[in-house]
Amino acid sequence: MKYDAEVKISLKKGMLNPEASTTQRALALLGYEVEGTATIKIIKFTLEEENEKLAMEEVDDMCQRLLCNPVIHDYEINITPSDA
Amino acid sequence: MKYDAEVKISLKKGMLNPEASTTQRALALLGYEVEGTATIKIIKFTLEEENEKLAMEEVDDMCQRLLCNPVIHDYEINITPSDA
């Protein structure tokens, strides 16, 4: 069975996010006053697995080993059966 | 009134995404077979505006002028009233 996985990676609270602060400063220079800017990355892919639970475990494994840095990142995994 | 804005930026269909293909190759090297890898970026912030429609227009403006490159990116804006 094929599953669509979506991994949402954000920086842990308190971590500096230079990309977000640069964006906020650049917006201010253009006259847009915004606050609390944050960035999130999503990685999406499709994988073959027997059931949803195993798919979730496999993706969690990928996050721990490659996709995320558990020291600085929080992550959230979403698994849905693939339409294809 | 304060609004939370979320801008979801993805590459247009057909654009090469070296970050995604590198991720997919690295996962394969670790023994995880996945396909159709894609990446999406989300930028979140809070802004002050009179109503939701004006907030949407202002954020769309920011996308056109700074946040996105309309030649290569698709974007999707989500505005919700801020809890704070």
From TrEMBL, chains A, B:
Record-linked InterPro entries: PurS, PurS-like_sf
GO cellular component: cytoplasm
SUPFAM superfamilies for the chain: PurS-like
Biological or metabolic pathway of the protein: Purine metabolism; IMP biosynthesis via de novo pathway; 5-amino-1-(5-phospho-D-ribosyl)imidazole from N(2)-formyl-N(1)-(5-phospho-D-ribosyl)glycinamide: step 1/2
Annotated EC: 6.3.5.3
Keyword line: ATP-binding, Cytoplasm, Ligase, Nucleotide-binding, Purine biosynthesis
Protein purpose: Part of the phosphoribosylformylglycinamidine synthase complex involved in the purines biosynthetic pathway. Catalyzes the ATP-dependent conversion of formylglycinamide ribonucleotide (FGAR) and glutamine to yield formylglycinamidine ribonucleotide (FGAM) and glutamate. The FGAM synthase complex is composed of three subunits. PurQ produces an ammonia molecule by converting glutamine to glutamate. PurL transfers the ammonia molecule to FGAR to form FGAM in an ATP-dependent manner.
Similarity-based family: Belongs to the PurS family.
Assembly and oligomerization: Part of the FGAM synthase complex composed of 1 PurL, 1 PurQ and 2 PurS subunits.
HAMAP family (UniProt xref): PurS
UniProt protein name: Phosphoribosylformylglycinamidine synthase subunit PurS
Organism: Methanobacterium bryantii
Gene giving rise to this polypeptide: purS
